[in-house]
Every structure is written in C-alpha cells, then in structure tokens.
Amino acid sequence: MGIKVVLFDMDGTIWDAPLDWGEARRRIGVPDDGLPIAHHLARLPREERAEKEALLRRFEAEGIKRGKPAPGAAGLLRFLRERGIRCVLVTNNSRESAAAVLRATGLSFDAVFTREDGALKPEPEALLRPLARMGASPEEAALVGDSHHDLVAAQRAGIREVILISPSPRARSFFPPGARFHEAKDLFEARSILEEIIGSDP
Fold first, then answer.
1. Does residue 69 have a cis bond before it (omega within 30 degrees)?
2. If residue 163 lies in a helix (H) or strand (E), which one and from where to where?
3. Least packed by Cβ within 10 Å: which of 75, 118, 131, 178?
4. Are 103 and 142 part of one and the same domain?
5. DSSP element (H, E) containing 157
6. Contacts of 5 (CB under 8 A, 6+ apart)
7. Against a cut of 0.85, is the pTM above it?
8. Helix, strand and coil in the chain, % to nearest 5
9. How far is it, in rounded angstroms, from Cα 138 to Cα 132?
10. 86 shares a domain with 27
C-alpha cells in the first residue's frame, strides 16, 4: 500500500521560529506537561482564557516576525506532488499564523488544518480528520514533524511512517518508550528518507 498523503507540521518543520516555548508556558501560566498550550487554555474560564489566548497569539506573532522558511521545503513539496502525493499542513498554531507562514514561504498545501479546526496534536483525530478529507487511510500516510506532539499523534493514529526533524531535548523527554520514527537533520534528509519509502512501495 503506497503513500498517498504526507502530513506536515509547521513550526520547527517548514518554518524555523526561534522561540522558547518553555518560557512561553511560564509566562502564560500553563504546566510543561507535554500537552499543547491551547489544550490548557480551552479549560479556563472565558475571561482568563481570552487574556491568555491573546498572549499566545503574541508569541505566535513573534515567531512569524523572527522566523524564516526552513530550507528544502519547496523542493520536498514539489518532489511529492510530482509523484501524485498530496501534502497537508497540520498545526496547533492559529489559522492566522499558518496564513502568515504560507505567505512568507510561498508554499501551498492541498489542505491546511489549524487549532480552530478541531482536535489538537497529540490527539489522533488531529491527523485522522485530514486523512479522511483526503480519502486516505493511516497506512497510506507519512508525517513530517519535529515534536512529541507529532510523534504521539501519529502513533495513536496509526500513521505508517513518521519523520522527525532534529527533535529538541525537551521534545525527546516526552517521546513514548519504543516509539518508531525516522530522524532527519533537515528537510533535505527527510526527502531522502521519503524517496526510499516511496521507492520501496509496490
């Protein structure tokens, strides 16, 4: 069964944003427990949630201002599209942030899913819903990301192949024991891994 869809994370994957998310969590006031900031904010009373969501959006805006496109993204998307493989962006960031990254990079995806669209990674539904939209099963999908959110969501969803780009020590601390994934130093190496995976498909 061949790869039909590749799911991409945004920050740390196609966009290099030099932000300290540990500091962001401290300033926003949520625990560093491996769950997304937005997961915690959704449980707060309305006024407190609005205040902290505004702070989160400011951090994300800073990531856009200070960030830059990850080298190799355009070539990787072109390689996949030439082989009839659809590309989907799945991020826990806001729709506004995703739109800004796409404008800055000039990249386009067959679909874009942000935190306004439903489940957040590491929930499996964050990946299963985009795959259903594309008419593909988890066994026909690969994911390119950089964090434990990506890895855990993919593992729970049954995604066939996972490639992580230079995961940080913090991300590694939340990796499930024995989780299977390919590690790449950048998107050029991720492309080489995907070439091998796609080339071995029947």
1. no
2. strand 161-165
3. 178
4. yes
5. helix 148-157
6. 85, 86, 87, 88, 130, 131, 134, 136, 140, 141, 142
7. yes
8. 50, 15, 35
9. 9
10. no
How many whole angstroms from its chain centre is CA 199?
A: 24
Rounded Cα gap, residues 39 and 44, in angstroms: 10
Instruction: Tell me how many degrees the CA angle 185-187-189 measures, rounded to the nearest 5.
Output: 60
Closest C-alpha among 190, 135, 133 to residue 161? 190
Same domain membership, residue 128 and residue 109: yes
pLDDT tens over the chain, length 202 residues: 699 999 999 999 999 988 888 888 999 999 999 899 999 998 999 899 999 999 999 999 999 999 999 999 999 999 999 999 999 999 999 999 999 999 999 999 999 999 999 999 999 999 999 999 999 999 999 999 999 999 999 999 999 999 999 999 989 999 999 999 999 999 999 999 999 999 876 6
Give the alpha-carbon dihedral of 112, 116, 119, 124, to 10 degrees: 10
* Overall number of domains in the chain: 2
CATH number of the domain that residue 148 is part of: 3.40.50.1000
For residue 176, CA distances in Å to 10, 30, 31, 116, 147 come to 21, 22, 19, 27, 12
The pairing of beta strand 111-113 with beta strand 141-145: unpaired
